[in-house]
Amino acid sequence: MAETEQVKNAKLEAKSPFELRVNLGHGVPETEVRTALATGDMGFLHSFTTGSTVDGPGVRVVAWTTGCQFRCLYCHNPDTWAMINGIPATLDRATAELRKYRAGLKVMSGGFTLSGGEPLMQDRFAVKLLTAAQAMGIHTALDTNGSLGGRLTDTELEKISLVLLDLKSWEPELHRRLTGMEVGPVHDFARRLGALRRPIWVRFVLVPGLTDGAENVAGVAKFAASLGNVQRVDVLPFHQMGRFKWKELKLDYKLDDVQPPSPEGVERVCAQFRAEGLRVY
Ligand code: SF4
């Protein structure tokens, strides 16, 4: 890959995924992008961040990929939608970045989480990076919207210690309105993980007026409980931290007037998950 000055100067580390990053892959020829996607020898990354305690067990190093086919109304990282916004990083560079944290992660019983964006938009790169992490003896997690899970073989799923699976809504029409995509493939992937007994942490973003309907929550909770492999559910209260990115990118943000859920609203939803026998955080 012929590296531009911009790419050479772009740092993989970021303080948080809330840093706005655009156009860092601009200028990479289309053929190189296609080869990267086919081989996984290069990926597009928004950044690496350290110190997360919410993206899997222990302290996590998180690689945030770019590229996502969903358009969630509440997305707090819309700069990760376009793959070309990310830093083109060879597999060797990304692996070397991760290796820097290997000893510390072991001491802290932490691990590596691949998030995004949607990491399976770059499924070959995702598999290679997760395989490299596993070979270093690091716990691996994949944070995914689940819709492209069919791109991974059963053997490749074994490279992933834990899947953080976003279940955004139960009702198909609401899922379409919320994300622009169908819910069916997400549920198919969840059922497959259940059949394979691969561990899942479900993530459910609670957006007042959108995802908090009692029937919708009950549907997600019943479905999650039916899988038999869900270790915990994280109910994530909606927040406005990503709004500035929508404004900067001149995107039509529709949730300006939505407030974070009240503590009572969060507790009601958590109780619905608990009622199905699930551990909730
Ligand atoms: S799946 Fe995640 S990255 Fe993609 S639009 Fe939704 S919230 Fe944003």
Structure description:
The protein is of the alpha/beta class and 281 residues long. 36% of the residues lie in helices and 19% in strands. The chain has 11 helices and 8 strands. Strands 3-1-2-4-5-6-7-8 form an 8-stranded mixed sheet. Helix 6 (154-157) links the parallel strand 5 and strand 6 (162-166). It is globular. The structure holds iron/sulfur cluster. Iron/sulfur cluster is lined by residues 68, 70-72, 75, 77, 80, 116-118, 145.
What is the SS-derived class?
A: alpha/beta
- Ligands (ions, cofactors included): iron/sulfur cluster
Give the overall average pLDDT.
95
Percentage of residues in DSSP E strands: 15-25%
Compressed to H and E, one letter per element, the order equals HHEEEHHEHEHEHHEHEHH
Main sheet summary: 8 strands, mixed
Unreliable segments of 5+ consecutive residues: none
Helix residue percentage: 25-40%
What is the number of helical segments per DSSP (H or I, 4+ residues)? Answer: 11
Radius of gyration: 18 Å
> What is the number of strand segments?
8
What's the shape? globular
Distance between the termini: 43 Å
Sequence of strands across the biggest β-sheet: 3-1-2-4-5-6-7-8
What are its keywords?
281 residues; alpha/beta; eight-stranded mixed β-sheet; 8 strands; 36% helix; globular; binds iron/sulfur cluster
Layout of helices and strands:
Blueprint: H1 5-9, H2 30-39, E1 42-52, E2 60-65, E3 87-90, H3 91-99, H4 102-107, E4 111-115, H5 123-135, E5 139-144, H6 154-157, E6 162-166, H7 172-179, H8 184-195, E7 200-206, H9 214-227, E8 230-237, H10 243-248, H11 263-275
Helix pairs in contact: 3-5, 9-11
Iron/sulfur cluster binds next to loops.
